[in-house]
């Protein structure tokens, strides 16, 4: 065993030295050859090199302590159970997991850049005569559990999926992972690309919290399983829509559980069928199950009708008219005809306008994405205008959600909202209820009726509804109405120029299928602005992959 200890100590010492010498920006290109420029910066901002790990095999804890001391790691708390590595070893060696005593320690070391990092030590206890010596020899040779790790800085599900996609795009191969309830953390493992020059074959992304839904996608390595998961996406949409339609979220609570029988009585559903729906939603992270029944999670709470920022209307719209029209996506791709028009016989604006309930649902669904607007009132064009008591013109402003936020943030601003008749009435009521009606006037009309004389014009999620020629026409109407000093703020999702993961790519498909519009890259918008005598001044990111495109008249863009 003296030889084994010496070998493991040498391996551990090499790991400690590596962690001390490396830094984030230098290490990522070594792991993912070809990664540079904006994508390297984006990755470096979202994940931080945290540790290097290896698996050692002491005969008991005393021997483990001796090993740590020999490597200068000093006093470290006793090991905690390592669920993920134990399960991986059990599967790899076909042994019962309860036979494998695997602990984890994280002694700290200081990096060359001054950052505090750790050496993650997995310790599988191998008592003499335990029969685990062969397993230990195999693992030392293969180094399956040796890896480099990065902590995900912002554990947002979309960011997480984007990071995983970036790793895969540069040659890293998904290699499982797991959720550790002892630490409430989720790990995503990758095999490093064959060309990697970091000296480690495996990479880990560590994400605080329970992300087993994303992990299930990550672990689906077989093509058939991956495709099957993708094909069931329609079930997810309809499960969420049914949850919203039945008002189940409104009958639930985020702090206490409720039993299926009681819940079924409240919403008028069959208990057995409701239980099946709820178990599926547990898998999606929309509800959680405990001893006292089911309760809402954060995402699930957004499907309550009365929730701040409720997305219930969006669920009803995406699982209703837009869901049905997506069945005609193949028709759109083949013929160029908009699937919604093919199915319903008219464009979606006319179709919704003829049905008051549907029109109201559409306007509420547009407001459901209001998190995109949160930073908009602080845009420099609005804060500068607010100082002089200026006027903001919201072109096709829907039910007034965005204009209301701007006026509430700047008491000296006045507003004008241009919309269709039914939307104007909804906006008038909404802004009056918010105490903002006296500072806002309303114009019923089309884009040709853009009011003149405003100081800041807003086009929020309008241009993506239309083809390029109609966009030029809309922008020309705005340009004619704008005084020379006026600013135009265009709020849209902008397609990434590098093909990275973005909600804009999904909405590009949606707009093609349901509206006949499209999402665009920033340079594409720049050409449309130029054709209307306008110029793009700058671009500011918003939540949900949105952007504010700041536009002015071309002759005054640089003054």
UniProtKB/TrEMBL annotation:
<protein>
    <submittedName>
        <fullName>Methyltransferase</fullName>
    </submittedName>
</protein>
<dbReference type="GO" id="GO:0032259">
    <property type="term" value="P:methylation"/>
</dbReference>
<dbReference type="InterPro" id="IPR012967">
    <property type="entry name" value="COMT_dimerisation"/>
</dbReference>
<keyword id="KW-0489">Methyltransferase</keyword>
<dbReference type="GO" id="GO:0008168">
    <property type="term" value="F:methyltransferase activity"/>
</dbReference>
<dbReference type="InterPro" id="IPR016461">
    <property type="entry name" value="COMT-like"/>
</dbReference>
<dbReference type="InterPro" id="IPR036388">
    <property type="entry name" value="WH-like_DNA-bd_sf"/>
</dbReference>
<dbReference type="Pfam" id="PF08100">
    <property type="entry name" value="Dimerisation"/>
</dbReference>
<dbReference type="InterPro" id="IPR029063">
    <property type="entry name" value="SAM-dependent_MTases_sf"/>
</dbReference>
<keyword id="KW-0949">S-adenosyl-L-methionine</keyword>
<feature type="domain" description="O-methyltransferase C-terminal">
    <location>
        <begin position="327"/>
        <end position="534"/>
    </location>
</feature>
<dbReference type="Pfam" id="PF00891">
    <property type="entry name" value="Methyltransf_2"/>
</dbReference>
<feature type="domain" description="O-methyltransferase dimerisation">
    <location>
        <begin position="229"/>
        <end position="293"/>
    </location>
</feature>
<dbReference type="InterPro" id="IPR001077">
    <property type="entry name" value="COMT_C"/>
</dbReference>
<dbReference type="InterPro" id="IPR036390">
    <property type="entry name" value="WH_DNA-bd_sf"/>
</dbReference>
<keyword id="KW-0808">Transferase</keyword>
């Amino acid at each position: 065993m003296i030889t084994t200890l010496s070998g493991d100590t040498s391996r551990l010492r090499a790991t400690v030295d590596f962690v001390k010498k490396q830094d984030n920006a230098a290490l990522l290109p070594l792991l993912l050859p070809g990664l540079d420029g904006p994508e390297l910066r984006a990755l470096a901002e979202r994940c931080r090199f945290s540790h290097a790990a290896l698996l050692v095999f002491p005969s008991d804890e005393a021997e483990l302590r001796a090993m740590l001391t020999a490597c200068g790691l000093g006093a470290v708390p006793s090991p905690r159970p390592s669920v993920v590595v134990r399960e991986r070893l059990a599967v790899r060696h076909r042994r019962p997991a309860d036979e494998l005593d695997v602990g984890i320690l994280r002694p700290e070391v200081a990096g060359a850049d001054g950052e505090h990092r750790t050496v993650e030590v997995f310790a599988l206890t191998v008592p003499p005569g335990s029969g685990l010596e062969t397993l230990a020899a195999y693992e030392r040779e293969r180094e399956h559990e040796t890896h480099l790790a990065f902590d995900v800085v912002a554990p947002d599900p979309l960011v997480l999926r984007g990071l995983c996609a970036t790793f895969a795009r540069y040659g890293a191969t998904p290699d499982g992972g797991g959720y550790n309830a002892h630490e409430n953390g989720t790990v995503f493992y990758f095999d490093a690309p064959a060309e990697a020059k970091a000296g480690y074959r495996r990479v880990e992304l560590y994400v605080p919290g329970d992300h087993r839904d994303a992990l299930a996608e990550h672990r689906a390595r077989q093509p058939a399983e991956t495709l099957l998961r993708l094909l069931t996406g329609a079930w997810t949409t309809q499960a969420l829509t049914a949850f919203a339609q039945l008002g189940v979220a409104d009958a639930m609570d985020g702090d206490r559980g409720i039993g299926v029988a009681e819940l079924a009585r409240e919403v008028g559903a069959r208990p057995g069928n409701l239980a099946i729906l709820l178990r599926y939603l547990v898998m999606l992270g929309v509800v959680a199950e405990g001893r006292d029944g089911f309760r809402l999670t954060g995402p699930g709470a957004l499907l309550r009708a009365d929730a701040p920022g409720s997305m219930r209307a969006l669920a009803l719209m995406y699982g209703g008219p837009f869901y049905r029209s997506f069945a005609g996506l193949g028709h759109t791709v083949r013929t160029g005809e908009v699937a919604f028009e093919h199915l319903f016989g008219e464009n979606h604006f006319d179709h919704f306008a003829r049905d008051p309930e549907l029109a109201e649902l559409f306007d509420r669904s547009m407001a459901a994405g209001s998190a995109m607007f949160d930073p908009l009132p602080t845009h420099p064009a609005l804060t500068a205008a607010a100082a002089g008591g200026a006027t903001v013109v919201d072109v096709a402003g829907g039910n007034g959600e965005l204009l209301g936020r701007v006026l509430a943030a700047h008491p000296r601003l006045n507003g004008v909202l241009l919309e269709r008749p039914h939307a104007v009435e909804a906006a008038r009521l909404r802004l009056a209820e918010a105490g903002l009606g006296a500072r806002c006037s309303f114009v019923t009309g089309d884009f040709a009726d853009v009011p003149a004389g405003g100081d800041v014009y807003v086009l929020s999620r309008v241009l993506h509804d239309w083809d390029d020629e109609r966009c030029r026409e809309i922008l020309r109407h705005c340009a004619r109405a704008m005084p020379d000093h006026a600013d135009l703020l265009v709020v849209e999702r902008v397609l990434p120029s590098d093909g990275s993961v973005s909600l804009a790519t999904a909405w590009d498909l949606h707009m093609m299928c349901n509206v006949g519009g499209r999402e665009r890259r920033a340079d594409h918008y720049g050409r449309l602005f130029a054709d209307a005598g306008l110029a793009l001044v700058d671009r500011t990111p918003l939540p949900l992959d949105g952007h504010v495109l700041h536009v002015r008249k071309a002759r005054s863009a640089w003054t």
